[in-house]
Amino acid sequence: MRAASANRLRCESCGAEMSELDPRTSCPKCGGLLSVEIELPTERGAALRALFDGRPGATPAAARADIHMSGVWRFRELVLPGIADQDLVTQWEGNTPLLARERIARWAEVPNLLLKHEGHNPTGSFKDRGMTVAVSNAVRIGASAVSCASTGNTSASLAAYAAVAGIPAIVLVPAGQVALGKLAQTLAYGARTLLVHGDFDDCLRLARESSERLGVYLANSINPFRIMGQTTIILELLQQLGWRAPDWIVFPAGNLGNTAAFGVALRLARETGLIESMPRLAAVQAEGAAPFARSFRGGFAERKAVRAETVATAIKIGDPASYDRGVRAIRDTNGVVLDVSDPEILEAKAIIDAGGVGCEPASAASVAGARRLARDGTIRRGERVVAVLTGHILKDPGILLEYHKDAGKPFGNTPVEIDAELGAIERVLSEPASTTRGR
Ligand code: F0G
């Protein structure tokens, strides 16, 4: 048991005192509610303020107004030097954690695995890093409206940043193919939302054509400002590693915006002397949406396009727009491109979720990909690997409920319906756990 401090639990009804380590949550004498009575620090006033203000993450008024609190604009010299502060549309995006989780690393067979969790961004995906730059630029150039095609995360992010900037947003998404959380966000943030009878590739074609025709500013990742914002995923993770580059960076790839951005980031980081060695990029696609992996296997001799099909709707893309810059990023970093199956993605996701970390299906492709690369010896034992989790677990609640509804799934956690009586709980807890979680 951990040592108790001088804190006490005190009953709010009868005043009885208990150790703060007592596991009971109501008063054993009278059933009253308990409060924690803490031992106050010796510092007071200015000394206490100085203690709190000196800690990382402190946000006194001055710091709150400081755009360098953003995990994108903190790197402004490498992102978009010269843009005026008053044009910046920021919600302190970035600042996402780099997590070490032993159970997930063990599953992936990569002992030195870290997870860069971009789901911690304001709208729950890495898109916010690109969007703060694209929408700031839209403000700077006086755009009257912004638009995008999306599998859901870009639209949610654009909708939010456009709302902050006070610019109308129009988004095109494939009807019936966008995860629930993303569609809900897009509507709630107020974007004009068009459900297109077609797939993402149709949406992007339409978005490009209509933005030209209607003079609307296009905020897809073909927009170069998006790419500059997304470079900060890499800059931030390098900073978190004390500027000691990892051996590998593994991430899901769809339209190849991130692949392009990561290549740019690493070139910039090398050129400016931020890092000494070049990590290798590993772009992971879903088996049914893997045109880039097919091109890679053919030595990039030919650009491929497919009709995409995968449970990971975020990366259900058949003809990636940033193909050429994606190729450059892979070549520059001696990188690899691979694909993983939907069952591998879902198993990786279940492990990431059950580890308390959680992510959306597309994000799990990175960890599934890391496992593939470790198993085939491409990632060698002892190499330091960062897998990027691109989106939050709540983006796609539908797929989660579907997975856990079925008791046969390897990491399934089926809910148990009971009558409202104590005996029912006892009966459930006395049964052997039907899941293999934690194995
Ligand atoms: N992971 C997530 C969660 C995504 O939403 C996306 C792309 C990717 C990975 C792939 O990144 O396109 O740069 O290769 N989502 C886009 C969207 C297409 O519209 O939200 P990419």
Percent range of helical residues: 25-40%
- By secondary-structure content and strand pairing, the structural class works out as alpha/beta
- What's the β-strand tally? 13
Bound molecules: ligand F0G
Q: Going across the major beta sheet, what is the strand order?
A: 4-5-13-10-11-12
- Contiguous low-pLDDT stretches (5 residues minimum) are 435-439
Global Rg = 24 Å
Overall average residue pLDDT: 93
- SSE pattern: EEEHHHEHEHEHEHEHEHEHEHHEHHEHH
How far do the termini sit from each other? 26 Å
Profile the largest sheet. 6 strands, mixed
β-strand amount: 5-15%
Specify the overall morphology: globular
Q: Helix count?
A: 16
Descriptive overview:
The structure is a single chain. The protein is α/β, with parallel strands linked by helices. 38% of the residues lie in helices and 13% in strands. The chain has a six-stranded mixed β-sheet, with helices on both faces. The chain has a four-stranded parallel β-sheet with strand order 8-7-6-9, sandwiched between helices. Helix 5 packs across helix 9, helix 6 runs parallel beside helix 7 and helix 9 packs across helix 10. It is globular. Bound molecules: ligand F0G. Ligand F0G binds next to helix 6, helix 10 and helix 14.
